[in-house]
Amino acid sequence: MPRATKRPSAATQSLFDNENDDTVARKTRTKKKAGGAADAKGTGGSPAPRKRATAQSMAERQREISVSEFFTKNRHLLGFDSPLKALLTAVKEAVDNSLDACEEAGILPEIRIALTQTAENRYRMAVEDNGPGVIDSQIGKIFGKLLYGSKFHKLSQSRGQQGIGISAAGMYGQLTTGKPVRIVSRTGKRKDPVEFLLSIDTAKNKPEIHKSEVVEWDKDHGTLVEIEMEARYQKGQRSVDMYLKQTAIANPHLTLTFVDPAGEEVVYPASTKELPPETIEIRPHPHGIELGRLIAMLKETTARSLSGFLREEFSRVGPMVAKRIIKAAGKGLTEKSYPTRIAREEASALHEAIQKEKISSPPTDCIAPIGEELLISGLKKELEADFYVAATRPAAVYRGNPFQIEVGIAYGKPGGIGLEVTDEGRIAKRKDSKAATEDLVGSADETARVIRFANRVPLLYQQSACSITKGIIQTNWRGYGLQQPRGGLPIGAMAIVVHIASVWVPFTSESKEAIAAYPEILKEIKLGLQECGRKLGTYIRKGKRIKREFEKRSYIEKYIPHIGIALQEILDLPDRERDEVVATLEDVLHKSRKF
Amino acid sequence: MPRATKRPSAATQSLFDNENDDTVARKTRTKKKAGGAADAKGTGGSPAPRKRATAQSMAERQREISVSEFFTKNRHLLGFDSPLKALLTAVKEAVDNSLDACEEAGILPEIRIALTQTAENRYRMAVEDNGPGVIDSQIGKIFGKLLYGSKFHKLSQSRGQQGIGISAAGMYGQLTTGKPVRIVSRTGKRKDPVEFLLSIDTAKNKPEIHKSEVVEWDKDHGTLVEIEMEARYQKGQRSVDMYLKQTAIANPHLTLTFVDPAGEEVVYPASTKELPPETIEIRPHPHGIELGRLIAMLKETTARSLSGFLREEFSRVGPMVAKRIIKAAGKGLTEKSYPTRIAREEASALHEAIQKEKISSPPTDCIAPIGEELLISGLKKELEADFYVAATRPAAVYRGNPFQIEVGIAYGKPGGIGLEVTDEGRIAKRKDSKAATEDLVGSADETARVIRFANRVPLLYQQSACSITKGIIQTNWRGYGLQQPRGGLPIGAMAIVVHIASVWVPFTSESKEAIAAYPEILKEIKLGLQECGRKLGTYIRKGKRIKREFEKRSYIEKYIPHIGIALQEILDLPDRERDEVVATLEDVLHKSRKF
User: Fold this and answer.
1) Chain B residues touching A178 at Cβ < 8 A
2) Are A593 and A545 in contact (CB under 8 A)?
3) How much is the pTM?
4) Neighboring chain B residues of A291 at a CB cutoff of 8 Å
5) Tell me: the pLDDT tens digits for B222-262?
6) Per the count of CB atoms within 10 A, which of A398, A441, B127, B445 is most buried?
7) In what order do the strands lie in the sheet with A194-201?
8) Å from A413 to nearest chain B CA?
9) Rounded distance between C-alpha atoms, residue B31 and residue B84, angstroms
């Protein structure tokens, strides 16, 4: 096959296009002479100075770029920039999918994650869930095609929203190890478990299935996905371990098992048997709609009247609102106008009328926050601290999208203030001052730790670019008894947790690492922080009093035995009476405590 | 047509999937009972608690997401987040395309940009060039399809690299105004100019051509693109004006005309008649290749031997290097192994052998920097300052990609230090201290202005996330006589220009606003800054001396007349002699200057 006519595939395109190549250069010249004819015969004339491109020769190099090729070359956009981050991203995408599927199917999720080192810089990730499974005909597309999924086109609260994640993880594995993705799935007791081996044809963005067969599997239903990839495993702030720990905090209904590369198993048991309420899908709110989208919707609707269109396709539009909008739009539009026949000019008038009409805010029951109680119990389970507080804000709306903010604070690391009031009203030193959660609460002279969640998914990267961090910085923590440098996070042994739940979380990038700073979102974050901050302030002030009291008392306590001895000497008491006096004095001291 | 069976199109999908809809909910229940059968008959039984989804019902909701839909919903990723930024992004994409096309075709670019306000928050952008034009059959795809282009698959220095920009601008216009894009193009004198009106079918990512016809046009060749969009126009640091001014600096061969919405015309004339050298396309360097990519290349090559494959598909691999690699790989591979028959295991060994083999760095003649001379003349043309310096670093390599860093500094705003040495060696105050370029040079007590370019394109957003800014901050400017707060930019009336030219610029996002901080890139940036910094330091020290000298002299100068008068009184001189003495004294003073 002559080189110049071969299929211009991804890998050989650069060669095909190489203008240094004599054949191609000559070809281009010929074409120019022929005024754009597609004749590829070489003329072989004298070596004239190389001519630059023409519209014709440039046209020949234009071609489609598949979305897989695009994201392979730009994999840093999806969170696969370094081996360390790639491992975290892959685990995250798999766990997100498992949780979404379990919740959608009403199953209490049990997920097992195992990482195995297969070579110096290679790991195999296996994520197994007890979810509803994936039917055979969908496995290829779900795991082997970018931009394919069920969540992109609906407005409902879910972890995934783009249909990219898990396929991108597989694509990264394939790129770095050449190995296919392994999937085992079963959709029910009476169905056979099937095993798939597949890779992605990046030039076509299509799955290539190497193997699919019925296998033995001990699960009644669920999915297992295995990806081998170039990776680095390391514990710490942005590790898989940290991600899983935080996932357990935000998902108290989840039972999570993690087997790390050393073979150690950690289990995060569920702290509730109740699934989060099912998240309801909503229709778009009219105020959030762009003109172009309205025109597309008018074209595609099955409603037979304009009034019907407005009522059926949007939330919060009843017959009266529809009537008023149509009247305000004018341009000869009536409630009975046939939607598909409405031209651009009329649609534009309709769009304007919609923006001007007062329409109630979108329904907010489509959001499922964690809830104050579960957030606190989640924090208690994973973070050892002295004081916990949480606040769930009422739902609000940005750009037509409902969202809800929750804030939790865990304050005072054992061994920090290190005091607790026992059930009997006694102040005791904590026995176990060894903090297993050092990483999450930090020490008293450090800045507060920020734990960010979006739809219950921990966000570990790009903290400073996130509106959650901005909200914390813009809150006045000095008012609550904490130190805070100008333009910085507050100082103290504390973890600040912020969760945003929304039908559409506005991430700043595809890798979903930071929340865009919409004013409405920032405002709600700050209100939530203030709510918790006030309670924290009360506790801190009380804590300071306790501390002073404790210091005073421990000082007196220290001398009570000496007082006893002195009294014994002065009054010539027997040892028994001396001990009685000491006990009485201690008792009086405890009773005189004023808190 | 019953609702449940209609085509699930973008706009109606949310309705189709709405689980609140009784029909759908009942349908789901039926299916569950039937164990996954696709029977859609409603049972209409008693209102049992709503069941959640099954693998079957979930599968029915899975669908493909077109890349246009994806980027419409995520348009902030492409730089279309606000009306202000959208206008800049659209102009930038159109101008980038024009410049790339002109250079590729060897035409000295003349570009005219006109912005017209069409409604309160709407503008029409028209960008017209004298480029090679686009042939009819390509117009639809180039302007109406995302991920289509000629630059993605080749390694060569160009402004565009993704095949998204101009189509995304059109898509944004369509989304916000409903209006199609207008294109006029002509590929040569003997060809007819054609006019196209087109929009993008976002659900399919395909152009919809509304009109294409031959029209009258006064240009011999070129392209005009017109997009109307929701936008805001405003002058300032991140304005269209600023972008164009900076574009003129980095493209001294460009003649640019800008007509702003008020109808005012600004012309930036070209300062050179020479096109930048044509950028050569290169083959990938073997050290930058991932295993998965190597496997794909082996499959797709037309080379008939492994040795031929290595030599033809990669740069810097000659027969000896190929031989050594193949020998090191082992696994029975020989120079004559047939590439398409090499299995994964062997490819993996080959990949390892490639990484271990010493291979010379990729060729760097594929990079076309602006050059020190042209960079300085560009700065002089657009920025009024006292001192200019530029440095073009030798080409270097990151991750197998050649790149080159250039740095320019314009220092000392007229009216700042405000002195200049005249041709006669006299120190004079500048006449015109009104700085037309206030915005670009800043004042003496402000931080330096940073002007960033990537492949000659100005970067106006995300300055703090950019490795250029990091390089400036990490440079010790105090050593060059400037103030610099810890972890901050230097202080002074100056503009620091940094240009990175590369066959693949590693942007941190699709909107191409900041450069990723690869260590090799950061190092080169700092070396370039140091080179300029040292020269600046010499100038500043001299400047400080001049200033001190000037102050002393002006002080003496002030008193010379008084000395004259005193001498006159003491020596009883006539006025003429007194004036002579004064003149002599002034002359002596000027001659005694020591620089």
Assistant:
1) 291-292, 294-295, 344, 347-348
2) no
3) 0.77
4) 175-178
5) 999 999 999 999 988 889 999 999 999 999 999 999 999 99
6) A441
7) A206-214, A194-201, A181-186, A222-230, A122-129, A110-119, A255-259, A265-268
8) 32
9) 50
